[in-house]
Design goal:
With 416 residues, the protein is of the alpha/beta class. The protein has helices at residues 3-16, 72-75, 97-100, 157-172, 185-192, 194-201, 231-240, 249-252, 268-275, 292-297, 302-305, 310-332, 372-380, 403-415; strands at residues 27-31, 47-51, 59-63, 122-126, 138-142, 151-155, 178-183, 207-212, 280-284, 338-342, 387-389. The chain has a single domain (24-415), classed as Rossmann fold (3-Layer(aba) Sandwich), CATH 3.40.50. Helix 4 runs parallel beside helix 6. The protein is globular. This is Pectinacetylesterase. Pfam families: PAE. Residues 1-22 form the signal peptide.
């Protein structure tokens, strides 16, 4: 069923029975109660948003991105590497400037010019306000920047997702097809909480993960930083986000994911694929992503943070990022139900995220893939396995951005 026909059918249904369809095709806010454990980082209520359709019972859940924090300034949203929404999620968030300027994806935009099959599904948007990539379960006090005014940070990402999934099951029932997707921190969160959400919702049809620009790379506990550069980040977040504590996400995996190694956060990717062999798992990131890589290494390596110029900065950054990506891709390549899509570069947002705004500039032309959208639809439809990694030797730097993407880029530049 093409996009035009779906939209026409929806319009006719609305005209025919306006009272019956009240509440469809609009973003409705759900505020989770405090007893659920759900909370934003500042302790305010956690809110998420649901956009329902009467056309089917399929469900697309989008996890918002927006940095991460393990120090006071970042948890307050300060600086280039700060976490988003430090003051919580307002009830009108879906009409906010942050969302309106395109930091959402075609997967939850019914009128996006970038056609995807989920435009006719029920949609859920999970805002991000905890600084823990939707995964933490600990209240941590940070006073390293402002000792006289400590930040009490509720790293409640896991509770937020768990309570939202239960609300969806109680109010929408079992979905037919299920898609979990997210970008940046949401790419991590959609991966780390995939099993928890899937087990709660129990979809009757196909279930798919499309995790954008949030790779959990291998980093065995006790390994040397020169061998596994992400280990410094992983060791830090284990403590401040409570991942290893009772009720933490890692301890939850013991009875949920087969083959997960609690001493290696990056093992979750392969463990998920083995636990759910009938599901499809798609992972994507740009080779030259200088945003997620900065979060992974900049605060832990002085040759990056103190680099004298942009060239030295990128060299120091990519000397860690590219080996970690190589190991990550090698792990994923071992699984028959995992797809991998790594284009080289996009002249937008520091080559960070393939799925925000639209999919322009995401082709891997030498492989015959015209955009990430083709990759995504192939994964959801259970087409042939696709595993593509683009390096500088085969990259195409001439891919144009869409007119809308260029307009958004200009507006963001003007705003600041």
């Amino acid at each position: 069923m093409n996009v035009w026909f779906r939209r026409s059918l929806a319009a006719l249904a609305l005209c025919a029975t306006p009272l019956a369809w009240a509440g469809y095709f609009q973003w409705d806010m759900v505020e989770l109660p405090p007893e659920s454990g759900a909370s934003c980082g500042d302790g305010s209520p956690y809110r998420f948003f649901v956009n329902r359709t009467p056309l089917n019972n399929h469900l697309a859940i989008v996890y918002e991105g927006g940095g991460a924090c393990w120090d006071q300034k970042a948890c307050l949203g300060e600086g280039r590497l700060g976490a988003t929404n430090p003051n919580g999620v307002p009830p009108d968030y879906m009409q906010s400037v942050n969302v309106a300027f395109g930091l959402v994806t075609p997967f939850n935009a019914r009128n996006s010019p970038q056609a995807v099959s989920t435009q006719s599904w029920n949609m859920v948007f999970l805002p991000y306000c905890t600084g823990d990539v939707h995964s933490g379960s600990k209240v941590t006090v940070y006073d390293d920047a402002y000792p006289d005014n400590p930040r009490v940070q509720h790293h409640a990402g896991q509770a937020n997702v768990r309570a939202a999934a239960q609300w969806l099951r109680d109010n929408l029932g079992q979905p037919g097809e299920l898609l979990l997707t997210g970008y940046s921190a949401g790419g991590v969160g959609s991966t780390t909480t995939y099993a928890m959400v899937r087990e709660t919702l129990q979809p009757t049809g196909r279930s798919t993960l499309l995790a954008d620009s949030g790779p959990l790379v291998p980093a065995p506990r006790g390994s040397a930083p020169e061998d596994f550069p992400a280990i410094k980040l992983h060791d830090t977040i284990r403590v401040v986000w409570g991942l290893d504590e009772p009720g933490g996400l890692i301890t939850q995996y013991a009875g949920l994911i087969d083959g997960f190694d609690p001493d290696n956060l990056g093992s979750v990717n392969v463990a998920l694929a083995r636990t759910y062999p009938q599901d499809r798992f798609g992972f994507m990131v740009f080779t030259r992503d200088t945003n997620f890589s900065a979060f992974s290494y900049e605060k832990f390596y002085t040759d990056i943070s103190d680099a004298p110029n942009p060239v030295a900065y990128r060299e120091a950054l990519f000397s860690r990022w590219w080996p970690d990506l190589d190991r990550w891709a090698a792990d994923l390549a071992t699984q028959p139900n995992v797809d991998l899509y790594v284009p080289y570069f996009r002249n937008f947002n520091q080559s960070h995220c393939l799925t925000i705004i639209d999919f322009s500039g995401t082709a891997i032309e030498w492989a015959g893939v015209d955009s990430f959208g083709t990759f995504a639809e192939n994964a959801m439809a259970r087409g042939p396995q696709v595993q593509l990694v683009e390096g500088q030797n085969n990259a195409d730097f001439t891919q144009p951005l869409s007119p809308f993407m260029r307009l958004v880029k200009l507006l963001l530049k003007v705003i600041g």
